[in-house]
Amino acid sequence: MVGVGYFGFQYYKVYKNPVIPAIHAISPETPLFIEFKKPLQTIKKLNYQTDLWTELANVRDINEINQQLLVLNTYILQEDYIRNLLEKQPMIIAVLPDDSGINNILYIIEFKLPNESINIDHFVRKVNGEKSILMRKKYKDADVLMVNIAGYKNLLNYSVYRGLFLASFDESVVHGAIDQIDEKQPLDNDDYFKRLKITAGKNVDANIYINYNYIARWVSSLTSKDILREVSELGSFGLWTETDLIIKNDELLINGYTITSDTAIYYLNNFQQDPQLIEIPEILPYDISLLLHFGFEDFNSYQQSIKVYYSDNKKWQEYNSSFQAVQKKYNLDLYELLISWIGNEVAIASTGNVDIKSNSFVVLHANDVKGAIEKLDRIISKVKTKTGKNPYQQVFGDYMIKKIDIPGFLPIVFGSKFSLVENNYFIAIKDYIVFANNPKQLIYLVNNFYLQKTLSENFNYLSFSNNISDRSNIYFYCNFRNSIGYLTNHLNPELKKVFNQNRRIISNFEGLAVQFSYDNEMFYTSIYLKYNPTYQEMNPSNWEVELDAPLYGKPWFIRNHKSGRLNVVAFDDLSNMYLIDQNGIIQWKIPLMEEPISPVYPIDYYKNGKIQYLFNTKNYLYLIDLNGNYVADYPIKLITSTTSPVVVLDYENNRDYRLLMALADNRIYNFDKHVKQIEGWNKFPAKSGVDQQIEYLVDNGKDYLFITDDKGNVLCVNRKGEERLKLKRQFKKARNSKFYINRTNNKGVFLTTDEKGNLVYITADGKINKTSFGDFDKDHFFLYKDLSGNNVNEFIFLDKEKLIVLDRFKKLIYSYEFKYDITIRPIFFKGKGNRNFLAVVSAKEKKVYIFDKNGLAFTDLGIKGTSEFITGSLNNDERINLIIGSNNKLMNYLLE
After folding, report:
1. What digits encode the pLDDT tens for the residues 20-65?
2. Phi then psi for 839, rounded to 5 degrees?
3. Which of 73, 278, 690, 894 makes a 20 to 30 Å CA pair with 813?
4. What is the pTM of this model?
5. In what helix (H) or strand (E) does residue 71 lie, and over which residues does it extend?
C-alpha cells in the first residue's frame, strides 16, 4: 500500500504539473534562440576538435565563458545524474534584449520529471559550495533561487518549473519565462512557426531560430546609429528562419529555411522566383570585400512586387515622390529607359576596407547590352537638354566611361540599398552595365578584368565558394580581412573596442556567405563561415608581365608621347629589351647584343616632340623609338669599351644633349647625340677606372660634375671638363653614397659620406669638413632627403640590416632592423598628397618595406619582389604605381 501510495503521489504530481516542451518558455518576442541537441558533446567538440573555436577562445570575453563551460563540464562529468540528463536532453539558449539595450540570456533545459529542483540544488552546492545559494524567492507557483557564481558580479537566478530548468543572470528574464509558460500562447501554436520547425534537422549540433520581427532591435543594440535605418529593415525581411548548425574543424555550416506569410510586407516575398546563377564575380575585381547579389527570373515582376512592398511598409510615398520627380524634371520614362533592359542579376559590391563608398560598384545585368547603352545615352541626352551641360566622357582603352549627371540617381530608382553609388559614372563590360562613384574605380575594374584578376579567379574565393550554391535569389558575401575596417566602424563603441583589440583573430576568419533561394514556398537559407589562418593573399599587383628570362637590373619609366601615359622599359638576362604599356601589355621585344649598364634616358632626337630611349652597354650606345626601331645610325659602337653608365645632360633644356661616360682608358668622354666627341672638352684621365655614373649638380648657376673612381677618389669638373673644385685633401667616398647640395648648415656646399660613414662637407673652395653620425660599414647606403615633409632634409643611413633616420642635430627619429642585410639601394619617392616615402627591398625575403616620417607604412599591401623598383603614376591619375621584378616576372602594385 505504501508503494502504491508513493507512485500514486508521483503520478498525481506529473498529472497536475505535466512536463512541457522547452519551447513553451520562449517568448514570441525572442529575436534569436539556439537549441543544442547534445550540450556536453558540443562543448567537447568545440574545445578539442575545432580550430575555429580555439581561435575565438583567444578573445578575452569568449575565453572567460569558455573556461567556465570547461569547469562546469568537469563537474557535470563527475555527477552521473546531471551527466546522463545533459547527454540526452537538449538545451536552449535564448537572447532577450531589454529596453536599455542590454542583451540578457535565458538558459532552458527540459527535464523528464516536473520537479527536479532537489537534484539541481544539490549540484549547484557541489559546484559552488554550500553557501552559494544566497536566497530563495517565490514567484507565482515557482521557486526562484539566487546563486553566487565565482567570477560573475551578477547573481544567477534559476528555477525548475513545470519540468524546465530556467536560468538567467537577470531575475526578470526568469520571471518572464514563467509568465510565458503560464499565461501566453506557446510559440509552436503559430502555424508558420510550426511549419518551419518541421524542417529542423535532428542529427546536427544545434538548431538556430531567428525571429525577424524582433531581430532588428537586438542587432541595433550591437551596431552604430548611422546604420539604424538599414538595421530596422530587418524587421520586415521575413518571419522566421530555422537553420541547422554543423560545426567542423575550420568552418560552420548553417543550412535551413526562412518562412514568410502571404502578405506583401515581407521583403523576401519579392523574390518568389527561381534562383539564378551567380555570374557577376566573373567581372568584379579579385579583392572584393563586400558583395550583395540579387538574382531575378524576371526583373519586371520584381519591380512590380517591390512597389507593393513599399506601399505596405509605408515607404511608397517617399520612394515614389523622388522617382516621379526625376522623371518629370528630366522628361524621362525610367521604366522604358532603365528598368526594361535589366536581366537576371543586380549587385552592389565594394573593394574598400574602410572607405566603402569611394570603392563601390553597382552592377546591372543587361538582356541586351547594346540596347541598354542606347537607352542610357538617351537619359544622358535628356539631362543635357535640361541642364545645358556637356556630358562627361572618357576613353579608356576600348571602353567609354560616361556619366548620368543626376545626383543620387541609382538610390532614387532602386531604393536606399543602392545609396553607396550616387555619382553614376558607368561603363559596359560583357553583358553588364557597371556604375561607380568615380572613373578611377571603373578603370581599376577593367584593368583587373583584362588581367583575369577577377573575384571568380581568386583562388581563395574559389575554395570558399565551393561550399555555397552557385544559384540564389539573395547572396551576401563578406571577406573579413578586406572589410574589417568598415565593419568595425559600424559597431557600437563597446563591440568596436573588442574588434579592434582582436583584429588579428578576426582576420583569420576568411569570409562569411549568406544565401536565400526560393524553394517550395519557403526560402532555402544557407550561412557559411570559414576559418582560415593560412589564408594566402592573392598577389595584389595590378598586373604581372612574364619575361623570357629573369629581369636584368631594374625597370624604367618612359613617357609615351602619344598617350601621355607612362610606359615601362625592362631588360632580361638574355639581353632582350621590352616595352610594356600602362595595362601591362608587352608592345614589343627586341634582342640586344649586350646587357645594358646604364639608366634608360628619354631624348627627343629629332626635336619634334617624339621620344626615343637612349642607354649604353659595354661596347654600344643604343637609341630606340616608341615602335621598337633603331634611330638614325644606332646602335653605335664605341671607340673602346666603356666602364661606366652613360649620363645624358641637357644643360639649357634645348635638346642639345651631352653624353658623358668613362671609357676603358680611364678618360672621361663627352659626346653629342650623334656620338661625335664635343670640341673643347678636356678628356682628363681619372686616377683609376671609373665604374660609377658621373653625378651632375648645379649650385648658384654653376655646373658641377663629380667623378668617382673605383678606389673612391673624387674629381669635380665643369661642363668643359676643367677642374671646378680642387679638393684640399682627398677622401674615400663611400660607393653607395651620392653627392647632395647641403641645405642644412653652412659647413659646405656639398655633402656625401666616406667609407667610414662620416658625413663629408665640401666647401666652395675645396675644403673638406667631416662629422660623424656613427660607425658604418664601407658599403653603407646614404640618402639626404626630406622624409618628414617639413622642407628639412633628414640623414638616412642603411647599413647592412639596420635603417637609421636622423635629424640635423643627430637625434634619432627612428630606426628599423631587417631580418637580413640589405644589398639594394633604397628608393625615395613622393606619394599621394605629397607624402614622402622611403622604400627598401629585402631581396632575401622577396619583400618591400615602405617607410614614411612615422615608420612603416603600407604594411598590408604585401609587396613582393627582389629587384630595384620604380614609382610613378602610369595613368596620370595621381595613383602611385610601384613596378618591381622577381625572377622573370615584372609586377605593378598600386600604392593606396
Report:
1. 889 999 999 999 999 988 888 888 888 878 887 887 777 766 776 6
2. -120, 140
3. 894
4. 0.66
5. helix 60-78
